[in-house]
Amino acid sequence: MSGALVSPDLFTLCKVLVGGILRILSDGVLAATPVGSPVEGLRGLGYFLVEDWLVTLLAWVVAITIMVTWAAAIQLLTIMWMERKFYARLQDRYGIMVSIWSLPFWPFSWWAKRRNKPTHRGLGYLQNVADGVKLIQKENITPASADRAMFHTAPVMIASSTILIFAALPFSEGFVIANVPLSLLFILATFSIAPLGILIAGWASNNKYSLIGGMRAAAQLMAYEIPLLLAIVAVLIYSGTLNVIDIVQRQEVPLAASGPLSYIPSWNIFSIPQFIGFAVFFVAIMAEMERIPFDIPEAEAELVEGWTTEYTGMRFGLVFGFKWLRALAGSALVVILYFGGWSGPVFTTLTPYVGGTAIPIPIIPHEVWFLLKVYFVFLIFVWISWSVPRVRIDQILNIGWKKLIPLSLLAIIVAAVFAAFGPYLGGIR
Amino acid sequence: MAEFWVNMGPQHPMTHGLWNMRVKISGETITDAEPEIGYLHRGYEKIMEVREFQKNVVLTDRLCYVSSVTWSHAYALACEKMMGLEVPPRGQWIRVISLEIQRLASHLMWLAAYGPDLGLLTALLWALRERELFLDLLQLLTGARMNQNFPRVGGVRNDLPPDFDKYCAKIIKHFRGKLDEYKRLMHDSKIFRMRTQGVGRISAADAIDWGVTGPNLRACGVDVDLRRLEPYETYDEVDFEPQVWKGGDGGDSYARFICRFNEMRESCDIIEQAVKKIPAGPYRAKAPRRAEGEGFARTEDSRGEALFYVIGDGDDRPYRVKIRSPVYCTMAATPLMLRGNKMADVVSILGSVDVCVGEMDK
Amino acid sequence: MAVDWQLAAFLVLSVVELGGSIMVVVSRKLVHAVFWLSVTLITIGGIYLLLGAEFIFLIQIIVYAGAILPIFTFGIMLTRRKIMEEVTPGEVPQEPVPETPEEGTP
Known about the structure:
heterotrimer; B: 362 residues; alpha+beta; three-stranded antiparallel beta sheet; globular; C: 106 residues; Four Helix Bundle (Hemerythrin (Met), subunit A); 4 helices; flat
């Protein structure tokens, strides 16, 4: 099995980093203020810079910044780019092509292809950055008769609860901010604050369409939280823990001790009740992410933009972009619970020597395996989204309440039966 | 829960064209509906009174801009009936070819608009990709992709270009394969059927009462296709089958979808037969400049029965032109289709009815 | 200076919670009251967290902020006529009245 790049955990790494930098600074200050010089008073600063609580505080700040930038900036841009390119190819067209070669100054404009079309020059990664910049420079309009306080607060509720998911979502066993015993439940709790924000946003816009869209969104999201949680109970019966990292580590053991099955890790998707749970979870998380086929709340054809109709500028960008962040978190949950998280085989391990210590770099490390699996699951979501029509809201609620809940209860019962009697029936799982 | 009126339009991504649909909803169910039309009224019938007969073809093209040849052809047919003019056979066959190509382009535009209404955004790009091929054919034949100004009173504007049958054969062969792809995308999709079956039902009796025609009527099980009932041009010499919904539970969006979809296959058959059967000869007869009398023509437009009634009083302009548009009558019947359904079904129903506002408002 | 972080956190959470609960009662608009109620309930969860009961904290958020408060809001939105009539001040939702032509107009 492979190892993680970020080890033992993000905070320790950041503390080492920050501690090193602060020690260099402190040494510099102490060297610049020798005893007996007129600036001797500044020696206190040098001693202050290596105080433990300062290093810890700055280490936390750096760790959180790294995680938020990684998840909410780099990964967000990457999955947005992947989605737009993928569905463009499904639709028989190239997709977004704005890249670094589109910049209008030298050397990019000099060596670029398609000289007369700056937006058609490359891979397309920078298009989303351009869209973000466009949204930032737009005017934030508040409708005159909208409820000002709630109109401004609701996107904050949605955005903050979405970012909070990444406090406990690990990208590998070390790349996590908070490794708490109940992290899976924490992730789901923060997922479930968003419906309230959407409902308030729809109401606050003072627009019939937004109100309808907001109510539909909240009804759908609440209906699908139940099968989501029940499918997780089925996983819990097998894993016995709510700690995300332990759930993944329990999936790293091989299926059988010897024989052909010993090459296959015991991912949850390979067991029968979990497969039922996976089907339920897959549909439920698609509904939670408000993707087509479940995107009636913001169905353009009927309700313009649904509950986000009155939002403009970066406020709109916030709620719009956070839909993708929730998609990322949803795909990450699917991978963690059913596809073995970040576990994967290691092909080789490079050990470069840095400053006397050997740093093992496994190829392919856990972070990369995790990202590969998340992208794969996300692309399946995109594929389904762009190939099927929308389901009507009453049909959505029908599926959620009447079809998914019995299935997930079945998954729990079968999982309990297998967990209890599995060893007697020849290790069936 | 209170009932209130919601305006869907006139500015709305769903309404293809400029009209307003007011629906009265109680919760999620529609209790009443009222279309408000006339936003695109351009005063056609009056304008056509001050232009010469041949010059009116430019206007009739733009009645339904998606399906221009069929409307100009209906007008030309009415004028020929009034003048007692006989179009030479080659002209009639060329007209049939251009009509069927235009029908295909129009149905593909409808498909491209219907998919995104239901959330299936891929259908937009796929259908428009195929529509490009047919617009290329039209450009080859007539010189323009839309609003071609092609039919003339007495025939057509120009002859078929050389090798036209080879191009037709190639494109139709490619298109038939694509029709199977669309079938997999749309018919075979359970969600699509969930959205369209049983939705927007109108009974055959109601449809006939309200004057619904075209694929919308054939979807209710009524076998009325003007190309078979009152054949004009050379439709009685081609072999095709009007697509009628067989089975008892027609009249819903799914039946309308299937009927209009399968018409595309039939149009392909007609074009293939026509390019083989077309005789040599003149393609246009000279129309007199001044005419007196009444001419009345009904044709099977892409959306239903298009009817022109032209009265001449000896001048070189018509005295009166009366246009009957199929969408105008179907729009009056939409409240029947909408009542009792959910608000999310409005797009499904109105999309399956294939509204073209240009011909509705004239 | 030794700061008792437990006490400080408890004080902050209590102030926010008490303030929120006062705003629930005092707010003029019902949806504002719902918002402040959600603030109150989440900070109560925070106090549970301080007491070491993490599970209850998470269940409090899932159940109260995630389910019960949206149901409250549904109840408000589906039963208050005033919400519907607060829509776009200029538009009055009513049946269109056919106008009778005045005398003398053609």
